[in-house]
Design a protein that fits this description.
This protein is an alpha/beta fold. Helix content is 48%, strand content 11%. This is Bacterial extracellular solute-binding protein.
């Protein structure tokens, strides 16, 4: 479940780490002295009136089971929590034993070795049943630099939710592309259906909430075709923003969605909660299309929902055009460009590139690497308990209409969570549950997965996207102050895209200039994508340099000695006979060059790759 109270970075966010650090300094000696055998301290997010990932229930049950108590320190500011976790890793503080947080912070923490490497743990502890984790979870969300650092407690991705009955009534099909999405929304927007006026689309676009997620969802279908290692917003070879026509087209698609959207879209947010228009408008029967996290499915099955047996789930749309990173232009999909494992071919529209966005990734747990081994084990034991198949199933499949204070917000992250019969047994409509489960499987198996950024400054980039996009949509949809002419309007979108890209560059440069940053942002990005290779060190040949000089000297000395011998013996029979082999002597050097040249050429290419900054890291 995605948190619905993300807000902008404000002064309280900047000051929060200091206040927590002051509070925590008084705990350091106590934390270091306590072996952790009776109490586990966990830093996490504060979601009032809501038992996030079943933390409170599981702490109570675990205490009754083991006698070990779990104490949570909760932070109400999402960005403040992220910053505090980074700060503690940087200063190697033992204030907390573990963390339950967003997976996106892992890159900032890992550069300080702030969390325990769990790679061996997930392989050897049978009760974790690691292979039961959904493929995208265990291979991407929980991983950084090809190592497991987090235990999943939730599984988050974006899905398309649609009214099956309305599409059938209007002779429409489930949208396969973003162009089809807004066209379907346009076809039904303002129409009457069963006594209700329809909104074609309902996406919460209030500034300060999920706008950066919505943009990433659409953009990635234009920019990423070959999996997460390719990157969707930045080129992983040099951090060049993938903006230009792709970002401008993304802004256009979002503008058209909002044009045929719910009237309260700009006053409400998305995600879960009572103020999510994505949920409310769909549940009251006035919305035809939305995309959101799994919250929409569970809310749609509540007793007061008007769409319990009418709302279905599908993968989010794709695109028939993709971004050429060399020309910075959008090009039509071909089999070569879009025909990979995640590509789809349709007779009427051709090839479609579909990206699966694991937005937010799902709340996850980590163990502090700066505590003693006893406390590490105690903390890990509790987190393994929460993550276990039995406990996680109870947290995931709650009966429709469960009171808010008992709701966990956990979306499926194990294969064992996806049995439609288990959902039907809890009161979910069987066909809808089947639709939901199959879509989750397809999404998390998609090789073209899209991940949130996991490097220093990623939060600032998200805020920048939100600000620029909100400003443009306000002018285009609310104020209607932009030119009506489409060509002029597209130029305006390109200006916004260029402004975003420039601000991204400034943020990255600023992050790299910070003295506390141990790893450049580019390297953090490559580590997160699993493609990083250490820069080539030409000093690694230093150990054989002396041997090389000795061999060269020996060859030269032998050559000089041989030349002198020939000069002295030039009138002898041996030398005269050798002259008759002159023709053969002309052939032998050619054959020698032919044999020696290819390996020398390959060695030169190898050296060139490693002299070009970052090129070797990508290839």
């Amino acid at each position: 479940m995605m948190v619905s109270t993300l807000t902008k970075l404000v002064w309280t966010t900047l000051l929060l780490p200091w206040s927590l650090a002051d509070h925590g300094r008084g705990m350091v000696e106590e934390a270091e002295a306590d072996d952790g055998s009776n109490q586990i301290r966990i830093l996490t997010f504060d979601y009032p009136g809501f038992d996030l990932v079943g933390m409170e229930k599981n702490a109570k049950n675990y205490f009754e089971k083991t006698g070990v108590s779990v104490v949570y320190e909760k932070v109400a500011d999402f960005f403040g929590l992220q910053e505090e976790i980074r700060s503690q890793a940087e200063n190697r503080l033992p204030l907390y034993d573990g963390y339950i947080c967003a997976p996106s912070v892992v890159g900032s923490v890992a550069q300080y070795e702030g969390w325990v490497d769990l790679t061996e743990t997930v392989r050897t502890r049978d009760e974790i049943e690691w292979q039961d984790m959904l493929l995208g979870i265990r291979e991407t969300v929980a991983v950084w630099d090809n190592k497991v650092y987090m235990l999943p407690l939730d599984g988050d991705a974006h899905f398309l939710f649609y009214r099956e009955d309305i599409l059938q009534a209007f002779g429409l099909t489930v949208p396969r592309t973003w162009d089809e999405y807004w066209q379907v929304a346009k076809a039904v927007h303002g129409q009457e259906f069963e006594g209700k006026t329809l909104s074609g689309s309902c996406i919460g676009r209030q500034e300060g909430f999920q706008n950066s997620y919505w943009l990433t969802l659409v953009l990635s279908s234009y920019t990423q075709t070959r999996g997460p290692s390719q990157g969707h917003l930045f080129d992983p070879t040099d951090m060049t923003p993938l903006a230009g026509e792709a970002l401008a087209e993304t802004i256009k698609m979002i503008e058209l969605q909002a044009t045929y959207g719910h009237p309260l879209e700009f006053e409400m947010h998305g995600g879960g909660g009572e103020h999510s228009v994505n949920l409310q408008a769909m549940n009251n029967g006035t919305c035809v299309l939305t995309y959101n996290w799994g919250d929409s499915f569970k809310a749609g099955q509540s007793p007061d929902s008007a769409v319990k047996d009418k709302m279905k789930v599908a993968q989010t749309p794709g695109s028939t055009r993709v971004y050429n990173r060399m020309t910075k232009k959008l090009e039509p999909c071909t089999e070569d460009l879009c025909g990979g494992p995640s590509g789809e071919f349709h007779e009427d529209i051709g090839w479609v590139n579909r990206a699966a966005y694991l937005a937010f990734g799902g709340w996850s747990a980590a163990v502090n690497n700066n505590i003693n081994d006893v406390r590490k084990k105690q903390t890990l034991d509790f987190l393994v308990y929460m993550n276990s198949p039995k406990v996680s199933l109870e947290d995931t499949i709650l009966a429709p209409g469960t009171p808010a204070n008992q709701t966990t917000g956990v979306d499926p992250y194990r294969s064992s969570h996806l049995d439609p019969a288990l959902w039907a047994a809890q009161g979910y409509e069987k066909a809808s549950a089947q639709s939901y489960a199959s879509t989750i499987k397809e999404t998390f198996r998609n090789p073209n997965l899209v991940l949130d950024h996991r490097f220093s400054g990623a939060d600032r980039i998200a805020v920048s996207i939100d600000s620029h996009l909100s400003n443009y949509l306000s002018r285009a949809v609310i104020e209607k102050s932009l030119p009506v002419d489409e060509e002029a309007r597209q130029l305006e979108r390109l200006k916004v895209a260029d402004a975003m890209a420039e601000e991204f560059r400034e943020i990255i440069a600023d992050e790299d200039s910070k003295p506390e940053s141990l790893i450049p942002v580019l390297s953090q990005y490559q580590l997160a994508l699993g493609i990083y290779k250490p820069p080539y060190d030409h000093k690694d040949i230093g150990g054989i340099r002396v041997v090389g000089w000795m061999l060269a000297a020996t060859v030269i000395a032998c050559s000089v000695a041989f030349a002198l011998w020939v000069a002295v013996k030039r009138e002898t029979r041996v030398i005269k006979v050798s002259a008759e082999m002159h023709a053969l002597n002309n052939v032998l050097p050619f054959l020698g060059r032919l044999i020696i040249a290819p390996p020398i050429f390959l060695l030169c290419c190898h050296g060139f790759l490693h002299r070009v900054p970052n090129l070797a890291s990508y290839y």
